[in-house]
Specification:
single chain, alpha+beta, 6 helices, six-stranded mixed β-sheet, 31% helix, globular, three-stranded mixed β-sheet, 208 residues
């Protein structure tokens, strides 16, 4: 189906794309996004605290200086990285990208051109998000991938998110995500979009 667009709260833009292809869904976003870099959260991730804008400026400046393709904002069990930190950029390490899921779809900053180059070289028939995550390392292109490593504490966790089902209790977090200054769109499938709208109607009826 051709992607459709509707305007939501605070003039945020919602793009509905029912294709199972990760590339189709990202291309629908690229058609309306003017940003070189974008923050990617899948539809079961929502911000659960305010973003430290100075931290995001720090990450974006690093991305610009080093032409980073990808910067993951947390460490998970599949990530391996070089111990040496990047000079003048505390907490950022270069990722080792020689195995499946070394680059994944956890909350991260992506360069639009990186997705475009991956699609051009994609040699596999399947293109779901699970195929994409599991086979990025097999695509033979230059990959400048990094990870921001920090201890999970209230003092230095600049970016917090959690996996949640959409409900009336976390609508405020979705609104924060939609209003994030460095991004201009969110990507939903039709099911999650309907779920979002139902929850928003319920939230409005509660007078919140």
């Amino acid at each position: 189906k051709k992607p459709s667009q509707t305007h939501g709260i605070d003039e945020s833009k919602f793009i509905v794309c029912d294709s199972d292809s990760f590339f189709d869904r990202m291309n629908a976003f690229f058609e309306v996004s003017k940003s070189e870099y974008f923050l990617l959260l899948l539809d079961d991730y929502f911000l659960n605290s305010k973003i430290d804008s100075s931290f995001m400026d720090f990450i974006l400046k690093f991305a610009d200086k080093f032409s980073a393709d990808y910067i993951k904002l947390s460490v998970t069990h599949r990530n391996t990285y070089y111990k040496r930190k990047i000079r003048s950029y505390s907490g950022i390490h270069q990722l080792r990208i020689n195995k499946a899921y070394s680059v994944d779809l956890y909350p991260s900053l992506w360069k639009k051109d990186f997705i475009v180059r991956l699609e051009k070289q994609w040699i596999f028939p399947d293109k779901t998000i699970w195929d994409f995550e599991g086979k990025i390392h097999k695509i033979n292109i230059e990959k400048k991938c990094y990870i921001y490593k920090y201890k999970q504490s209230n003092n230095n966790a600049h970016f917090k998110s959690s996996r949640r089902l959409v409900n009336e209790k976390n609508m405020c977090h979705i609104i924060d995500c939609c209003s994030f200054g460095h991004g201009d769109s969110m990507l939903f499938n039709s099911s999650s979009c309907r779920q979002y709208r139902r929850a928003m109607r319920k939230q409005c009826n509660m007078g919140s």
